[in-house]
Amino acid sequence: MEREWTAINARTSMEGFYIAVRGDLEHFHEAKLFLTAKAKSFIKDVLHFEPKHLALKFESWVVGNFGEETSRSATQRLPLAKIISLCRKNIQNGLDNILQKNNLASKKIPMNYDNYEKNIVEVYAVAMNGWTYEKSVCNPGKIGRREHLIKLLDALVKGECSWVVLSEDELSERIQNNHKHQKTDSAKSVQIICDSDLENGEEDSNELGGSNMDGLEGSLNDAGTAEQGLQVIH
After folding, report:
1. N or C: which end of the chain has fewer CB within 10 A?
2. What is the DSSP secondary-structure string of 60-104?
């Protein structure tokens, strides 16, 4: 197919592209993509996608059957691991796309879920907008419930959940909030440690007090026994 497209482009100066993806989860065909120079420029500059990212979105849409409103969504039949994988791929590709488009990184940056705010948001001034899960951005593998994952994947494919570039004011506010949360979390951790030490101290004191009382009672008993012995001798 690529040869035919290349030949047509050379003979007629026609521009175009094609994307071919699997139509069902049971198929194992890799996505095929071909595009001429101007078609590539159109996808990147007008649609604001990397061609591979566009192919991934198309595949997610087809396999997930998001266009079928009247029939049961095929997404319901996807294994949980596949839904998680599609979510991660869309998130990573979206991050790659926005960083490359805005020249924010010279190399591919892997998504960091554990330190998302510190290592992604604060460093590259980008953030995910439209996150559907009740908690903050996290690894899709930690979401667990199928309905929440399907909702997230739906939003990612439709562009309702996507990466955005933060303004200077937005980034500054975000950093301040992150630092406040970090201080609050640190204070809670210190309080937990102090409470734990206090409880252990009280237990040690009780044990120590109990030992002293046992020793005192033993001494008194010994003294009483000795006194009785003296009386017998007399």
Report:
1. C
2. HHHHHTTT-SSSPPGGGGS-HHHHHHHHHHHHHHHHHHHHHHTT-
